[in-house]
Q: What sequence folds into this?
């Protein structure tokens, strides 16, 4: 994926969906993204957990079974206390193993965080990677520019 998950209104073909938690604190922000465009922003005045989830699809282009992928996102935080902000990803076919990035807390400028996912071999010629953007705590977080890139065979 090449910025196919970019959190701006112009590239909503692979957008984030299935919000859960205290989503009243979350919004699509049109001009606070890393490149001055849109992003996902959570600003919680109290401890709150907000999770946004998406999955790669067979037409976006698909991920290939038996391969390892790097999943990354840029995150920025402001006075984020509690669990922090992170990225979670997993092979949708074998959903038992969730991979998590480092956790970002406090006040941080835009920083790229990442994790890896091994896509299981199965009968289909494509696989799926599910991605979660997690805000856990009090304070603000911004997420932008999610990318899924093939690394090598798993």
A:
């Amino acid at each position: 994926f090449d910025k196919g998950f970019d959190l701006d209104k112009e590239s909503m073909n692979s957008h984030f969906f299935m919000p859960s938690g205290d989503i009243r604190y979350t919004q699509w922000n049109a001009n606070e993204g890393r490149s001055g465009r849109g992003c996902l922003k959570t600003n919680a005045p109290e401890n709150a957990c907000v999770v946004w989830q998406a999955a790669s699809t067979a037409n976006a282009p698909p991920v290939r079974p038996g391969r390892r992928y790097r999943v990354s996102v840029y995150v920025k935080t402001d006075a984020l206390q509690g669990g922090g902000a992170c990225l979670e990803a997993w092979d949708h076919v074998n959903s038992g193993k969730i991979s998590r990035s480092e956790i970002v807390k406090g006040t941080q400028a835009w920083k790229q965080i990442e994790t890896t996912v091994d896509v299981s071999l199965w009968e289909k010629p494509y696989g799926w990677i599910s991605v979660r953007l997690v805000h856990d705590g009090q304070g603000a977080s911004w997420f932008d520019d999610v990318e899924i890139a093939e690394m090598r065979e798993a």
Observations:
- Confidence is low (pLDDT under 50) at residues 1-14.
- Strands lie at 17-21, 26-29, 39-55, 67-91, 99-100, 104-118, 129-153.
- The two ends are 18 Å apart (CA to CA).
- The chain is about 0% helix and 60% strand.
